[in-house]
What does this fold into?
Amino acid sequence: MAIFAAGTWGASTVYAGRAVRRGTVASVTFWSQLIGLVLGAPALLVVGPSAVTSHVLLSGAVAGVAVAFSLTFLYLSIRFLFVGIASALSAVVSCLGPVAYSSLSHSISPLCLVGVGVCIVAIVVVVGSKRTDSWQGGHSLRPRPAIGVLAALLSGVGMSVYYVALAGNSVDAQVWRAVDCRFVSAIVLLAASVVFARSVIGVSSAEIKAAFPVGLLSTAGSLAYALAITSSSFATVVPIASLSPVGSVALGWLMLHEQVSKLQVAALFLAMAGIVLVTS
It folds into this structure.
């Protein structure tokens, strides 16, 4: 299930990359979450209401706020960075949250510290390497990579909270958390759009159509992660789920014709190795 989560999350990020380079970040994020809610809600009919508690709804709400924050900054970052690079930077930071959470009851291993160092090196290489700005899909990346890097790192902070909040050992409760997460994230995104950036959520059929695969794939990944964490620990699930940038790099090259350099590819795989070490 964790591998499935990584694959679907990686694919959803690529579809989001294509959508936000033609539309607005707010539209893609909101519609994908709302579509995900509609697609995921029928699962509640299967599990029933017996697992619903205030704790389940609260943790799902925390995850919803966190994922709204995370996806907004991730989708913003891929307006300035290649999808694979943005995903990797976010993944590196996101794996540190569960590690810090686990360190409250377990000491941090030397391998974990080595992994943190490897991740830092990977970030430095990615940020410092030469970037190709052209995108052969009809649009170009905006020439402010520093904004993209900062947004990707902030996305990772939100995702680390999401990982911790969306954790439990009951399958039924996890389904409720995952759907509750989508509900809350859609509300948060709509409210944020109204307050901070009015009239940026489009309602055209083209925008909704572009957001559909993003919502479908990201919701499938969220449900898969929520179920995977019921039978395994953070140390097993998080590093596997965090490998989504590998798929993003491949699909970004195939679908968006992103010309990632060999040095950047090497740095991305170095980051993935660091994630495995950090969570080992």
About this structure: Confidence is low (pLDDT under 50) at residues 130-141. The chain is about 75% helix and 0% strand.
